Amino acid sequence: MEAEQLGAGTKRAAVAALPKDFAHLAQEPELAEARNQEVRIRRAEAAKLTALLDYRARKLQEHQGQHAFTRAAVEKAIVRDAALVLTATESAVRRLLECAEFLQEKLPQTWGAYAEGAVDWARAQRIAQAAEDIAHREDLLPVLDEDAKLKAPGMNRAEVDQWVKRRVPELDAEAYSARCERARSKRYVVFAHLDDGMTKIDAMVPTVSVAALERHLWTRAQARIESSAQGAATLTQRVADEFVQRLQGSGVNGPAPTEIVPQGADSAVGSGSGSGSGASRPGSVNAKISILVPAETLLGNSEAPAVSEDKSFVLPASDVRQIAHDPQAEHDWLAAGIRADSQGSGEITSIVPLGTRYPLEGWDGASALARAVNLLDTSSRSRFVSGQLREAILTRDRTCQAHGCTRPAWRADVDHKTPHDQGGGTTPQNTWVLCRDHHIMKSHRLLPVPGKDPPQ
Question: Which Pfam families does this chain map to (predicted)?
Answer without folding.
Answer: DUF222
